[in-house]
Every structure is written in C-alpha cells, then in structure tokens.
Amino acid sequence: MLKISTTIPFTVRVNSADIGDGSWKLVSENRYECAAVGLRVDVKVDSFDGTGAVRQVNTITNIGSEKVLLSGFSSAKIRTAKGLIGVDRNRWQAEGQWQFFTPAQCGLIPASVHGWETETYRIDSVGSWSTGEFYPLTMVVADGATYYMELEGAHNWMLKHTVMRGTDEPIYSLEGTSSNEENGGWTLTLAPGESYTSQPAVYGVVDGGFEEAARELVNYKRAVSLTSFDNDVIPVVFNDYMNCLWGQPSDEKLIPLIDAAASVGCEYFCIDAGWHKNANGRLGAAGDWIVANERFGEGGLQKIFDHMIEKGLKPGVWFELDTVNPDAAAAKLGEDCLLERYGQPIPRYFFNFRNEKVRQHLASRIDELYSMGVRYIKNDYNKTTGIGCDNGGVSPAEGLIRNYEAFSEFIDSVRAKHPDLIIENCGSGACRAENGTLKHFHLQSTSDQEYYYNYPSIISGSMAQYPPEKAGIWSYPYPRLYDERNDKIDLSEFRARFADGEETIFNMVNGLCGALYQSGRIDCADEYNLSLIREGIASFKKMRGDIVKSRPILPNGTFLIGDRLIASAGLMTGDGSRAYLAVWRIGADSDTAEIDLGRYGFTKASAWYPEKTECDFADGILKVKLPKEFSARMVLLEK
User: Fold this and answer.
1) pLDDT interval class at 168 (50, 70, 90)
2) Which of 95, 172, 322, 615 lies 20 to 30 Å from 17 when distance is taken between CA atoms?
3) For residues 76 and 330, what is the distance between their CA atoms, to the nearest angstrom?
C-alpha cells in the first residue's frame, strides 16, 4: 500500500503568524511541542478495516503561562506529487461536477530560485452550506497514483494545494483546515491548560485514479457511519415534492398519489413541505411545526397517515429543524434560542442547538408526529448562516463549529429515542452534505435537479461523495416542473409524451444507481408506464442487498451537465463478481453504446432493467441499444 509522506502534519498560526516547522520538536510519538509559544499538539490518526483512508484529528494545548490567540490550526498536512488537481464543484442543482486542472492552470508554478517561495491554490467554503459551492474533497492524480483529502463538518473549511522551495527543489503539499482566520475569520483564545481539537481530515493515496480513490472513500464512510438499515434493506421512498406537488399537499392530491405509490411497490410515503403551520395559523411557516389539519379535509393529517398505513406505506414528513420564522412562537423560546452575530439574530432565523429549550421543543414536535405513525423524516436546510454565529462570545467561525456539533448530537438523540425512525439529510438538494453531517443520517439527497437527463452527471460525480446506499437519487416520471405546479394537467398531452416509456425508463435507471427516491405525478400514468415503474422498483429490491456492499465503477469517468455523450456508471459487488451498470444516451447521435469494460474482468452481460434491454458483450466491449436521443438502460455484468 502506498503511504503518505509528512513531516509536521499540521499548521498553527498565532496572532496571524505561522509557527514554522522548525519551531516544533517531536517529543514523543505523535506529540509536538513549541517551547517559544508554550503550545503542544497531539496528532491522532485512525485507520479503518477495509479502506486505506485514514482520519486525522489534532489537539492543541496551551502548556505555557500566558493566554495564546490562535488564528489558525489545520486538520492535516501531507506531501503529494506533482499532478492533475481535481476539484468537485457542488452548487445547487449541479452537484458532483468534477474538473481536473494542471498545476500551472492553478498557478502552482515554481518561479524563483529562492527557497522561501510559496504558491498556493485553494478551494473553500464559508458558512453552514458546507457543500454549496464545492464538496470538501480534492485529489492529485500523478504517475499512476491518486492522493486525496476530504474535510468533515458543516462549517467553514479550506483545502489548500501548495508548491514551495522554488525552482531547485519544489515540494508539493495539500493541507485542510476548518479553523483559520483566512477562511471565515476563525480565532480562539486558549488559556493556560486549555485544549482545542480540530475538525477531522480524511486522506490517503491509492494506486490508480479517481475510481480507486472514490472506492476508498466509500469504504471509509461506511466504516464511520452511525446509521444502518434493518437487514441492510434500503427503503423505497415516495416523496411528493420534486416534480410533483411542490409543497402544496391536500387530501385531494395525496390520496391518488398514495394509492399509486403503493401499487408500484413503494414502502414509505413522505409528505414534503406544506403539512404544517405556526401558532398564528400561517401555513408552511417553520419553527412551531403545528399540524395544518385544515389542509387535509375531515380527519386531518391523521386520516392521511392512516390511509398510508392501510396501503402498506410508512408515513413520513418534511422538517427544516434548523430554521424558524420570526413570527413563530418558537422564535421566542427565551434568551439565546437563536443564532446571533454581533448581537442580532442571523437573517432567516436559525435555532441555537446548544440551547436546551430549543432541543426540547424540536424533540416534542418529532415525538408528536411519531405518535401519529411517522417513521420517516426528511430534514431540509435551505439557507446558510454566512460566516457563523458568535453566541457564547466566540468568533463567528468557531460558533458555527459548536452549533454544528450540537445539531449532530441532537440528531443522534432523536435516533436513539426512536430507533425505527429513518432520517434523511437534505440541504436544499446537497448543499450541506459532507460526511461529518451525513454519518448521522440514514440517507442523503443528492440534488434538487429537475431535469432527468442532467441527473447522470450528478450521479457519476457523487460516487466519490456518498456510499450508494445513502445516495438518494430522484426518479420522477410524469414530472410537473416548479413553474408548472399550478397549471391544470392535460392528461392527453401527458400520456402522448410518455407513450413509448423511454422517459420513465431513463428516470428509473437513474434511481437504481443509489437509494431510489420515487416521485412524479405517477397518479396520472397509464398502465404501461406504471408497469415500467413497478418493474424498476422490483429490480431495485432485488439488487439492494448488493448495493449496501458495492463500490463505484466509472468506465467512462465523470462528466459534466450539458455534455452530449454516451455515458455509464455502475455499482460493483464487494467481491467483484458482478456489477449493475447504467448506460445513458444523453443527446448523442449513436443509438448504440459501446463501453470498454476490459479492465474489470467480466465475461457476460444481460438485461437488468428494463427486461427487454438489447445488449451484447464480446472481447470486453459492451454494446447496448439506446433507441432515443435521451434514453437509458441498466445491464447486469457477471464473471
């Protein structure tokens, strides 16, 4: 196994000045001291079965007699080789957009004979949308090996590539930090005897490229996950939001959808936004989480839940636990119930999870829904705090870290109290979706992308971000786009568009690449398309036992939204004996996909979904018939 080379595996800044490597003395295994400033750093590096990825956590202690103002404390610092630099753009509705650049394109050009020369290239995030612009993961692909580093936690972070020591002896390195004055203004005063622990960094190096690094990260994330499914059964969830009801539920709309979802084999039904009101009666206002029974006719929401249960579905609801409307009673729970900055509540109003009254209030609302039969919660997060919150007299960046830790502990307490409650993480798609957050949840929304033909790019790029059993992927045949949500449905036009079933098949193939999130106005579907949805869900149920142990394969690599091409991505079983490969035609001219699978060692291919898929496999080349400009199939590969 390749090993990471490192000398001092961290950086410390005091009063905005770096303490150089030469100032630190290794006094015992993984313990360093700087006598001049009176600081000690203990480095803890953990390894995990089944993966070469390691997790590093640093603890700094003031062993001197004076207070020290820390202005930077990194999570990890490693040496890398010179190579292509991979970054993961992750903006709303365009998650998992991987791009690779040469060091020169990133400005990493040794240009001086002086040994102190340093050039840097960084990606970063400011605020609680920790994955709203980039996913906190970067790679360096060099000479047949790939280095990677990922940061954890829903707060400010920075990943920095550096070349140093000038033209004579350039050294390339990679550093990650969540505690840095440059990135969100983090500072912390450390009194004598006090300690502070960094947020985790995960890193490693593999023989191979992106696919091999993604595999190590998936295995690591499985190893540290705090959640699991009973008997490894990933649930099939219908959610009524995306390309469906868009937060406008009612009994008239829900009953036909519930019946359709049950008829095709869904197991949970989640009512998204719109089921609730606040104490003033305002529908959809967050914070108080009072059931808006008036929306659901005689019998209210309980009658809707009872109907789900009669149909064999477990009820679910949407929450946005972090936020509260200013006119809600919950916004006045008492002093320090809201996150503040400079003495004022942060706009949009966010709960302070370090406040016991806030935690008790939210737990009571969950308890009430649980008593009504709810066994699934989708927790959303649609705004960012900005640089952070200064509750407790700390810097806003440090306050954000502490609130994130308290929020995570709250989610853990809910799961402990209701162990049969499945909790999904959603951050306006995947804008708060790093593994520090995800490990506390059962599922993760991968996107809010509304166009089914854009989703394969997100699927391929997200394979380095999430274990596939947690990667919730929307399938929404018969879509109603957001701007069409109030329009009357023309059934004849709808059914003409879907007559050949290809759009339904494409959607279902997408959903089979992770955890299937079903949606769309399937209550309007004709019997042929309902049969395709039913077949897709049955196929998912047959493969989900493999998904929880699978690893990603990317025969064509990742690609970007807007690319017109033949693409593929799949899930290979842990023993490598078989794989489920999605093949997409996205605006390409050819009606036959040709995928080179020689390096995987498969010997045969057969239709997986739909049953009538035309495919052929010879000499390591898979050929799949894709009849329309936008069409998809899934193939089972075996050895």
Assistant:
1) confident
2) 172
3) 40
E strands, 168-302, where? 171-177, 188-190, 195-197, 201-207, 237-239, 268-271, 276-277, 290-291
Q: Cβ–Cβ contacts within 10 Å for residue 481, how many?
A: 13
pTM, whole model, 2 decimals? 0.97
Pair (199, 241) in one structural domain: no
Domain boundary among the residues 415, 445, 475 is at 445
Q: Give domain status of residue 536, yes or no.
A: no
Same domain as 190, residue 236:
no
Q: Residue 6 pLDDT more than 90?
A: no
Kindly report the CATH number assigned to the domain that includes residue 583.
Answer: 2.60.40.1180
Residue 268 has pLDDT above 60, yes or no: yes
Question: pLDDT grade, residue 1 (50/70/90)?
Answer: low
Quick check: 167 pLDDT over 80?
Answer: no
Could you tell me the CATH number of the domain that includes residue 94?
A: 2.70.98.60
Separation between Cα atoms, residue 512 and residue 582, nearest integer Å? 8
**Secondary structure (3-state) at 299:** coil
Same domain membership, residue 632 and residue 566: yes
Distance CA 369, CA 367 (A): 6
DSSP helix/strand/coil, 565: strand
Q: Phi, psi (5° rounding) for residue 495?
A: -75, -30
Provide the 8-state DSSP code for 454: G
* pLDDT confidence bin for 554, thresholds 50/70/90: very high
Same domain for 356 and 292, yes or no, is yes
Matching residue, tokens 């279902």: 508
Q: Does residue 357 lie within any of the structural domains? A: yes
In single-letter form, the type of residue at position 612 comes to K
191 and 303 both lie in a single domain: no
In the chain, % helix, strand, coil (3-state, to 5) comes to 25, 35, 40
What token pair was written down for 97?
């957009």
Q: Residue 447 — very low, low, confident or very high, per pLDDT cuts 50/70/90?
A: very high
Q: Kindly give, in sequence order, each residue whose CB lies less than 8 Å from that of residue 39, ignoring residues fewer than 6 positions away.
A: 12, 14, 19, 33, 60, 61, 62, 63, 64, 68
Q: What is the DSSP letter of 4?
A: -
Question: Residue 389 is part of a domain; what is its CATH number?
Answer: 3.20.20.70
Whether 113 maps to a domain, the answer reads yes
SS (H, E, C) 406-428: HHHHHHHHHHHHCCCCEEEECEC
CA-closest candidate to residue 152, choices 215, 93, 259, 76: 76
Total count of domains within the chain: 3
Average pLDDT, the chain: 96
d(CA 121, CA 98): 16
Same domain, 335 and 422: yes
Q: Return d(Cα 88, Cα 458) in angstroms, integer.
A: 11
CA distances from residue 246 to 81, 249, 486 in whole angstroms, order as listed: 48, 8, 10
Chain segment 574-593, per-residue pLDDT in tens: 999 999 999 999 999 999 99
Predicted confidence (pLDDT) per residue in 213-250, tens digit = 999 999 999 999 999 999 999 999 999 999 999 999 99
pLDDT at 5: 78
